[in-house]
Every structure is written in C-alpha cells, then in structure tokens.
C-alpha cells in the first residue's frame, strides 16, 4: 500500500471520528438539559453547565466524596442532612434534586434565590447565614419547615415567613429588619432571635403564646408591654434598647433568664417571682439601692462581659 493511500485513509478516519463526536453532542444535550433536569444526576450530566450550576455540582461532589455523577448521585439520593458552607453555591437547582433532605446548611454562600428548594417537601431545617440572600420568596412552599436561620443576610422583608405556619424556630440577626408584622401568625414559634435590627414595635408578638426564648438586643424598642401574655417565656434578652418601664417582667411567670444590659436603670427591674434564674442589668451610679436585690448589678453604664458582672442565682 502506498503512502498516498495511507494518507487518504487517515484523513477519512479522522473525518469520520470528528463527525461521530459532533453527532453525539446533540444526543447528550437532548437527553440532559437545564430545561428538563430535575434530579442531581440529571443536573450533573448536563453538558455546558453555567458557572453557577457547575459550582453547585462541584460542592455536591465534595459532599459525596467523588466526582463521578452516577456514584455521587447514589451516595446523595437518600441523604437527609447536608452541610455546604463557603463553597460558592449560588444556584440551588441541583440541590433541589435531593428529595429526602431534612436539614440543609448553606452558610457563607452567594445564595440569592430559595425558590428552587420548594421541591424539598421533607425539609425541616434551613440555614443560609452570612449569605447574599435578599428575598424569602418561595419559602412558604416548604410545608415541613420548622427551623429557619437567615442571620446577616440582605433580607429585610419577612413577609413570606408569615405563611410558614409550622415554623418553630426563627433566627434573623443583623439584617436591618424593622417590620415584623408577618410574624403574628406563627403560633407555633418557640424560639425567636432578632438581635441587631431596627425593630421598635413588638405588638405582632402579642399572641405568640408558645414562645419560650426571645432575643431582641440592639433594636429600638421602647415598650415591652405587648409581651405580657407570653406566659411560657423562659429566656428574654433585651439589652441595648430604649426601654424605661420594666413592669411587664413582673407578669411573666415562667422567666428564668433576663438580660437588660446597656440601658440606664434606676431601680431593680428583675421579676420578684423569678426563681432559680438569672437577671442581669446595669444600675445607674448613685441611684437608690433596692433592698434584697435579686442580683448585684454592674455599676457602670457601659456593658461588660457577662463574666465580669456579679451574678447570683435567685434563691427560693
């Protein structure tokens, strides 16, 4: 066989391989595409992924301990808990393809849209702290959600949360939130943390009668009277607000821990019925000392670390 024949044959073979490779691409694209993908495996197999989808798939590879789509899917499909912190996760659609998830932690990721998670009907706990999240749209479709943490995000509108009626725990610290009207319908709420916001009105909390722990430090609160009906409340943190009248504390029978640091107080505000509990506050220097104080207050008008205060448990 001549060299010319070999050359021609090589060209034909190369052309055929090239055409074959090109021909397979449409077939793969038709079978797996972003428009139709639902499961993690399908998202993993999508060719020409966007950078956001690719980053999420890579994060799930890390969680699965493998970079093979089939193997990763097999390891993840029955997973009930998943933690993906600081892994550049932005597009949540591949995660939404894991239907058995009950606990999902996405802290420190550039997450902006939670709506893909509406497919996770068994999800009970979601954390997206320190993220770029701006809206809670779609959260109301998580019909099993009981705990939500959105600390230090860009969320200022809690509106959609009002429709998550089964919610028991909510943490939204440091978000610049002012309006909490949407929380009024969360009758099952037991834990609520709203420190470092702009809240000045507590009326929406009036009928949250199952609340046991409430954190409201560093807001603009002047009155705590709306809390008078919270008869099972055990922990109340109110430091660094603008409160002057503390009489409501006297009608909260279940209180075990009260913190009132960073406010000018002239009389002992601690509930007289507080038993086997702790009450911490700052007393204005030179004010009249209250007999039989439940604790010894700090004499500085500036807040101190808890361990620097003289705190004594209340005796029966």
What percent of the residues sit in helical stretches (DSSP H or I)?
Answer: 10-25%
Low-confidence regions: 3-29, 288-316
Radius of gyration computed on alpha carbons: 28 Å
Shape label: elongated
State the major sheet.
10 strands, parallel
Protein name: Leucine-rich repeat domain-containing protein
Region (Disordered): 292-316
InterPro entries: Leu-rich_rpt (IPR001611), Leu-rich_rpt_typical-subtyp (IPR003591), LRR_dom_sf (IPR032675), SDS22/Internalin_LRR (IPR050836)
Organism: Romeriopsis navalis LEGE 11480
Describe this structure in words.
This protein is an alpha/beta fold and 316 residues long. The protein has one domain (79-308): Leucine-rich repeat, LRR (right-handed beta-alpha superhelix), CATH 3.80.10.10. 18% of the residues lie in helices and 12% in strands. It has helices at 3-31, 40-45, 51-64, 69-76, and strands at residues 81-83, 103-105, 125-127, 147-149, 169-171, 191-193, 213-215, 235-237, 257-265, 278-283. The termini are far apart. Mean pLDDT is 85; it is low at 3-29 and 288-316.
